[in-house]
Amino acid sequence: MTTRVKPWRGVMVATALPLREDLSVDFDAYAEHCRWLVAGGCDGVVPNGSLGEYQTLTPEERAKVVETAAAAIGGDRVMPGIAAYGAGEARRWAEQARDAGCSAVMLLPPNAYRADERIVVEHYREVAKAGVPVVAYNNPLDTKVDLTPALLARLHAEGLIVAVKEFTGDVRRAYEIAELAPELDLLVGSDDVLLELALAGAVGWVAGYPNALPESSVALYKAALAGELTTALPLYRALHPLLRWDSKTVFVQAIKLSMDLAGRKGGPCRPPRLPLVAEEEALVRAATEKALAEGLR
User: Fold this and answer.
1) Under a CB-based contact definition with an 8 Å cutoff, are residues 130 and 91 in contact?
2) How far apart are the C-alpha atoms of 197 and 187, rounded to whole Å?
3) What whole-number distance in Å separates Cα of residue 77 and Cα of residue 9?
4) Contacts of the segment 142-150: beta carbons below 8 A, 24+ positions apart
């Protein structure tokens, strides 16, 4: 196995977790899905994010998801989400990932209440003690805690983070982050601003829709990073009716439906998520079928 120098870079797929009809985890299908994504050109996977429904997993299931991915494609291609209510628990998940052979982890700020800067810094400081590189995840829409460019620069200056998954959709932040912390790697966090953030200097994509269409997504990413707009822009326009679902509340259900339509195993979601309503399902189905008919894979 070749160790990736910066394993958080490239197309890292926030994996959906295939469930059986009885809502048990299909670990064999998950292992096969991880291998399929890498074979399709993706650089690795991010298990146990929101797309992986980590909040609904038992501790045993959550650990096995990481171990399954690492065994399937190698730990240097696996960057688990380690979000937890407390820093101590998040650190334990970081240690579990480290012991499974993973080379990096992804961490939200405290998300049980609106933490201030002092608390956020201590949260990341505690988790950094696990000794595995930490990618911060900025999603103030859900956590109500904003990792501002200035705060990210402080976390990076103190050696607590190596990169940030930026999910706000605010492309302007890319330039401020680059000014305040030029060595901090910027990762695209929401699929529907991929092109804009790639042109602004992103070096990775924590991606949702490659779960269904990896080859076309990777082609888009590579063209966007290279600034090859004659290739990137038509692909982006073709994929955008799907990519925008990554930023919607029902993104898990939408991506799993697209997976099913593309011949993958998405399957149902665990409660509290319910199936898409008829109007949403029709929109996702139509956009997915159009993409597949146009040869996107």
Assistant:
1) yes
2) 8
3) 10
4) 142/50, 142/111, 143/108, 143/109, 143/110, 143/111, 144/111, 144/114, 145/109, 145/110, 145/111, 145/114, 145/115, 145/120, 147/109, 147/120, 149/173, 149/176, 149/177, 149/179, 149/180, 149/181, 150/180
pLDDT in tens, 54-77: 999 999 999 999 999 999 999 999
Low-confidence ranges of the chain (pLDDT < 50): 1
Identify residue 96 by its one-letter amino acid code. Q
The Cα-based distances of 295 to 15, 42, 121, 265, 288 in angstroms read: 23, 18, 46, 20, 11
Alpha helices in 11-106 (DSSP H): 27-39, 59-73, 87-99
The amino acid present at 204, given as its one-letter code, is: G
With contact defined as beta carbons under 8 Å apart, do 76 and 45 qualify? no
SS3 246: helix
Report d(CA 129, CA 125) in Å as an integer: 7
Whole-number Å distance between alpha carbons of 169 and 139: 10
230 burial (CB, 10 Å; 0-12 / 13-18 / 19+) is: exposed
Signed CA dihedral, 107, 211, 256, 247: sign only: positive
Residue 1 CB burial class (10 angstroms; 0-12, 13-18, ≥19): exposed
- Give Cα 20 distance to the centre of its chain: 22
Contact 195, 225 (CB under 8 A): no
69 SS3 class:
helix
Neighbouring residues of 76: CB distance < 8 A, sequence distance ≥ 6: 1, 2, 3, 4, 7, 44, 101, 102, 103
Both tokens of 294, joined, read 């146009």
Length of the chain in terms of residues written: 297
- Given this model, what pLDDT does residue 1 score? 46
Cα→Cα distances 89→26, 185, 218, Å: 25, 25, 34
Amino acid, res. 193: V
pTM, whole model, 2 decimals?
0.94
